[in-house]
Amino acid sequence: MIVQRLWADDKYDDKFYDDFIARIKKNSGSCDEVWMCTLGAMPELSTHAAYAEKLKGYAEKLRAAGITVSLQVARTIGHGAKGDAANYAGEPAGANFTVDLSGQEENGFYCARNEGFREYFAEVCRIYCEKLHPSSVYFDDDLRLRSWAGKLRCACPACLKAFNEKFGAEYTAETLGKAVEENAEIREKFLDFTYDNIAEFAERISRACVEGYKDVIVGLQHGSYSGELYQKVFAAMKKSGAKAFGSRCGAGAYTDDEPFRIVEKVNDLECQFSRLPDFVTHRCPEIEGYPHLYYDKSAHGFLMESVLNLAQGFNFLSFAAFCANYETELFDDFNEKFAENRAYLDKLAAANVGTRRIGVCNFIPKNYYLTDYDYPNGALTPSMYMCPSFYYGLPVTYERKGNNAYYLPAELVSALTEEEIDMLLKSPVVLSGQAVMELEKRGLKDKIGVGAKPIKGGYYEENIPDYGSCNCTYYCGECTALSGGVKALSYYAPHSEMNMVKEPFKGGEIAACIAKTVYGAQWLAIGYAPERRMPSLAKARMVLDAVAEISDAMPVKICGCNRLLQYPRGNERGVTAVTLLNASMERTKSFEVKIENPAGGSFEWLAMDQKPVVPEVSRNGNFVSVKLPELAGWSAGTLFIK
Ligand SMILES: [Zn+2]
Asked: For a Cys staple, 455 with which of 109, 479, 535, 630, CB 3.0–4.6 Å?
């Protein structure tokens, strides 16, 4: 389950491996698998062969210690400009760089359509697989439409010719760029065409891996750019006949400096996870510190990220922790921590089998990549659209199976199909006033049961009558005043701190309400700036109660005054597990959670660095109240139910 990725580096010599293995042996369960790495750049194939031979010796050491050996292909299309220092002696004749849609050649990024380039990497994969017999091979994350400095690609002469022939057109890179920007139909054709190119290359190198070693698992490292079209790449890899297929979802390296960025990355990864085809059975998150550093991210930080990822559904963990070449004295921290918490991690992975995430589903229309928000800078990133405000206790997920309450982002309303609109009108939906205005533009004013008008700028306060006199002030770049609705939940106050209310605003308008659609589904509309992530306790409670009122997306209620985030899972029998993250620096007091319809009568609480606890439980009809122990700051625990 625990994988350490090592780069291709001369620092990883016999002495390194002996030390590395000794530290793992001292902390049993802290590492099960190592991903070795092919050489980067484009050395001659004989250089690759010699390096693979060298790795073979280390692979034998690892296997003798009971550690599985796998491989990552260091690069394919490219990571950056072609540097003078790197070895490109094996660059195939005729290989060409990609050209972006402004006609600029991308130095160092190779076009995957080129036959010489395809054969070079097929041979690289064959060589290492023949020598190492790796359990799995993962292709690094440059195999995509955009990467690093690279822009949307490719419009090199060969790609342009193929595109023009396929569609009977006569585009240049520049005219195609303009057409892709202005015309959604051409954009879709171009994306589809380009993914086909990448998919063909992925199939070729996957087949080469299988030719080198027939029992290999083939996997793809990818990032948040992976939307529905990325499934083409997995489908192509499947044709290789590899033993099984894997995904390593990634989205950057975040450290102890910014724990919340780790939470956001975890959400992003769940978005990618939720889009993987079912045949991709090996699913791991990328968990990284900064390259060549260990010191920036504590073992605790690595563990917290691991727990959250497993709670989202992943079944193993892939670290770039020991790519830290120069800080081996810190490796023991990691190994000790993971050995101590191994039973908890195993239990989290086991609890994912046959269960799914429960919560409010971030709704991504199938045509999301045709919106102007996504082009040209959005990088086809569905995870940029997520329920933004209510991290404090509201379970949000990209999982579509089984969830029927949705968050609808305003930016994506223009991309909704008629069928999607109809489905949403029949479902509980959480949305902002901005989204209401976008729906009005699409002529749906009479169907959604709520209206919205913009308020310009200023700082506003909100009165939330049912939740005490706790008002909160916030800057409202995108505030709207709501109208209609069935039940008003809060109102704009006529004043604000420092009198920064702008004329002609007088206050009194509805700030949040529950509305009823033409089909009778209940929607929660929130008129104020949805990007605000820090609600007051009153506001958080108002939103949580309202979501519970309109939907069944909240079977777990967290009681008390704390800043806990929740990641519930369940199956047809009910709630099977809920992971809770204390998203604050302060240790919580002992707290209570109320669970509607638990999947069984046996409860166990496991938390980071804690001994298992059988909690105190009391029943009331369909609800079970569970008393849980204190939870340290930026620390997670899970209630397992069976
Ligand atoms: Zn090309």
From this structure: 479
Mean pLDDT of the chain: 91
Neighbours of ion ligand 1 (CB under 5 A): 111, 113, 154, 156, 159
Q: What DSSP character marks residue 587?
A: P
Give the residue among 42, 126, 51 at the shortest CA–CA distance from 91.
42
> What contacts 548, CB < 8 A, 6 or more positions away?
554, 557
Of 130, 92, 97, which Cα lies nearest the Cα of 111? Answer: 97
The residue ranges of every structural domain in the chain are 357-553, 564-641
Least confident segment among 80-84, 409-413, 426-430, 572-576: 80-84
C-alpha 603 to ligand 1 mean position (Å) = 56
pLDDT category at 497 given cuts 50, 70, 90 is low
Give the position of tokens 């240049």: 172
Which DSSP helix (H) or strand (E) runs through 190? Answer: helix 184-212
Among candidate residues 434, 479, 487, 488, the one with its CA nearest the CA of residue 461: 479
More confident site: 82 or 431: 431
Other Cβ atoms closer than 10 A to 98: 29
Q: What is the pLDDT of residue 378?
A: 47
Measured distance CA(424)–CA(448) in Å, rounded: 10
Asked whether the beta carbons of 452 and 525 are under 8 A apart, the reply is: yes
CATH for the 564-641 domain, from 2.40.40.10, 2.40.30.170, 2.60.40.1180, 2.40.50.140: 2.60.40.1180
Look up tokens 């200023």; give the residue: 458
Judge contact between 360 and 397, C-beta under 8 A: yes
Q: How far is the CA of 51 from the centre of ligand 1 (A)?
A: 30
d(CA 389, CA 210): 46
Q: State in Å: Cα 159 to ligand 1 middle.
A: 4
CATH architecture of residue range(s) 357-553: 3-Layer(aba) Sandwich (3.40)
Contact in structure between 554 and 298 (CB atoms under 8 Å): no
Q: Cα of 78 to ligand 1 centre, how many Å?
A: 13
Cβ of 66: how many Cβ atoms within 10 Å?
Answer: 12
Given a cut of 90, is residue 245 above it in pLDDT? yes
